[in-house]
Design a protein that fits this description.
The protein is mainly alpha-helical and 137 residues long. It is 56% helix and 10% strand.
Amino acid sequence: MNDQQNQEDTIDLPTCGAHTHSSSDVSLMPQKSEASQRNKSQLSQTQLSTVTTMLKALADSNRLQLLLLLQQSTSPLCVSEIAEQTDEKITTVSNRLKQLYAAGLVSKERDGQHILYGLQDDHVEALLTNLVAHATH
C-alpha cells in the first residue's frame, strides 16, 4: 500500500473529552449479531410504541433518579420511603411512579395498606446499569 492509499484509509477519530480513542476502539462497520439484525426488522408498531414510551419515561431526570434509587435498594420501597429519601412530596413521587409503572419499568405489589415499588425485571436493571456505564465512561 502506498502512502496516498494509507492516508485515504485513515479517519479522524472523535474526541469525547473524557479520554482519547484509538483506532482499535472504533469499528467502521460494527458487527451485529444475527439475533440483533433479526430483532430490528421484526419490531411491530406496538413494540416500537412500547420502546418509545419507556424512553420517554427515562428522559425525565427525576423519574430516572427514582429508578436508580429502586435499583440501589435491597428490597421494594413504598411511596413514603421514596419521598423521604428524595425529599419530595408523596404526591409528586406517586405521580412519577405511576408514569414509570405505565411505561413498564417498575412493578408494584400491595403489602397491607402500602404499595411497594421495585424495578420491573432484570432487563430494566441491565438497562440502567448500561446507561450509567455509558454516561460515565
